Amino acid sequence: MRNMSDIIEQYLKDMIEQSGNEVVEIKRAHIAEKFDCVPSQLNYVIKTRFTNEHGYVVESKRGGGGYIRITKVETHSETEYLLHLQNLIGENISQLNAEHLVQSMYENEVITYRESQIIDAVMKREILSLELPYRDILRAKILRRIITAILYAKDEMKCEICNEREAAIHISKGSGHAHREQYLCEQCANQSMDINYNQTDNPFDIQTLLKMLANNSQREQTETEQHACPTCGSTLKSVVKNGLFGCSHCYEYFERYVPEIVTRVQLNQQRHIGKIPSQAHDTLKLKRDIQSLEQTLQEKVKMQAFEEAAVVRDQIQALKDGETYE
Predict the structure, then answer these.
(1) Mean pLDDT, residues 296-317 taken together
(2) What 8-state DSSP symbol labels residue 123?
């Protein structure tokens, strides 16, 4: 059963579609009255369902003549739309905004529902088990790679026979070393002797995208490992393996990798955990003993146990004077 937020969302989308120019102006009070809801619910729908990631621009004006103007971003081609999404991602992206963006790709028929669910699954914070902001940075990087893969596939995936029309038919034959795949347009597929072919919802399926993503990641990892400090020759791989920089210049050369290196070397610990020097340990113990006795002193005073309080007071003074107490 659809909830009120879904109903309002669909109503606004129908208004935008029927407007003829992809723009609609509404008043909070009118919508709230129509659906018998509070204005804050309309605000929630607009802030979560009509975001830039969904492909909308929202302007609002408060006051007597106030309104909310929702404009659907016009893109003249799928390529332009995907490039727009890449610009929205930036250097980092939250899980919620990533989900909005993937939903937008599904609604615009760039990916199938199944592919949207797979992409959403790998964007979860439980999967990208890193601390912020590294988790959001990694999520943005993966999402940009996926969009790049779609763009690459779109530009390159022409019919293998005519090399002119867009490939819409996926033909798979044989298995093992004899396995062969073809991507053909409908006309060439119909003219082909191969009549047993598999037609998919989207020729650029998620397997192709993930394969491209894996290849890109592997290439980038290789390029990263080849970087070496010009002074001592230490590589990023050797620094992480040994837990030590080769020289003082390594800090400057590997500057952008330092936070990740420290996290890996310290086993994801963000603060120092280790032994306390003996002298510092004695000082810390003395400070804690005094604090404990001061708390006891306050309790004794509250209980009006003044004789016991006096004993505790003397113990505190003895510790401060560097003496021991019995």
Answers:
(1) 83
(2) T
Residues 229 and 235: their CA atoms lie apart, in Å, by 6
Q: Which helix (H) or strand (E) holds 72?
A: strand 67-72
- Flag whether pLDDT at 184 surpasses 90: no
- The number of beta carbons lying within 10 Å of the beta carbon of residue 314 is 11
Look up residue 50 and give its two tokens: 């009509």
Q: How far apart are the first and last CA of the chain?
A: 74
Question: Residue with structure tokens 């003082």?
Answer: 248
Report the distance separating Cα 72 and Cα 50, nearest Å.
Answer: 9
Using CA atoms, how far residue 261 sits from 101, 125, 174, 219, 240, in Å, is 31, 21, 46, 20, 6
Locate all alpha helices (DSSP H) within the chain, ordered by sequence. 4-19, 28-35, 39-49, 78-89, 95-107, 113-122, 134-156, 186-191, 206-226, 236-242, 249-253, 258-265, 278-302, 306-320
Element (H, E) at 170: strand 169-173
